[in-house]
Amino acid sequence: MMLAVVLVTIVGPAAAKVYSQCQLATLLRNNGITSNINDWVCLIISESSGNTTAKGGPNSNGSYDYGLFQVNSRYWCGTSGPGGDCNVACSKLLDENVADDIACAKKIYARHGFSAWYGWKNKCKNPPAVTPC
Ligand SMILES: *[C@@H]1O[C@H](CO)[C@@H](O)[C@H](O)[C@H]1NC(C)=O
Ligand SMILES: *[C@@H]1O[C@H](CO)[C@@H](O)[C@H](O)[C@H]1NC(C)=O
Fold first, then answer.
1. Which residue from 53, 70, 91, 96 has its CB within 8 A of the most atoms of ligand 1, so it is best to mutate?
2. Is residue 22 part of a domain?
3. In the chain, where does DSSP find H-type helix?
4. Domain for residue 132, yes or no?
5. What share of the chain is helix, strand, coil (3-state, %, to 5)?
6. Whose CA is nearest to atom 14 of ligand 2?
7. Which domain holds residue 65?
8. For ligand 1, is residue 53 a contact (CB within 6 Å)?
């Protein structure tokens, strides 16, 4: 008797994944961010409320902000395919795979520190506003 195995790929509208502060702390650690976890978690909560599909804007200069870290399309990601200094499509920063979001955030941080994010400057600087777990 033959068994037919049918693989079904379910493609639906991207569901918003919303992370708690504790889950964010774990997610960051698993992606190689090992210091300043409270600042990072506070930054994400301030910018996107932990919502992977958060899209902000349009900003006054016509740019948009994408994903957990609200990465700005003016410099960092491409609005029509991979681009920007992170060489990633902005749309990819809205899906549930957050590895590319974190890689891009590391790049932004390496260049500008936490001050690159208004959410951090306004709500997390001195002292960080959250204790994740
Ligand atoms: C997450 O963000 C998306 C896009 O802005 C929004 O539609 C959704 O309601 C948000 N989810 C939660 C739980 O806030
Ligand atoms: C556009 O506006 C965003 C959000 O205010 C800002 O992060 C970005 O630096 C601005 N870009 C330019 C070129 O002014």
1. 53
2. yes
3. 21-30, 37-48, 99-112, 118-123
4. no
5. 40, 10, 55
6. 61
7. 16-123
8. yes
Contact 70, 44 (CB under 8 A): no
Cα 11 to ligand 2 centre (Å): 34
pLDDT bin (cut points 50, 70, 90) of residue 123 is very high
Query: Which residues are CB-neighbours of 60 under 8 A, at least 6 positions away?
Result: none
CATH number at residue 41: 1.10.530.10
Task: Write the pLDDT tens digit of every residue in 34-81.
Answer: 999 999 999 999 999 999 999 999 999 999 999 999 999 999 999 999
Length of the chain: 133
Domains in the chain, number: 1
Residue 4 resides in a domain: no
Q: Would you say residue 48 lies in a domain? A: yes
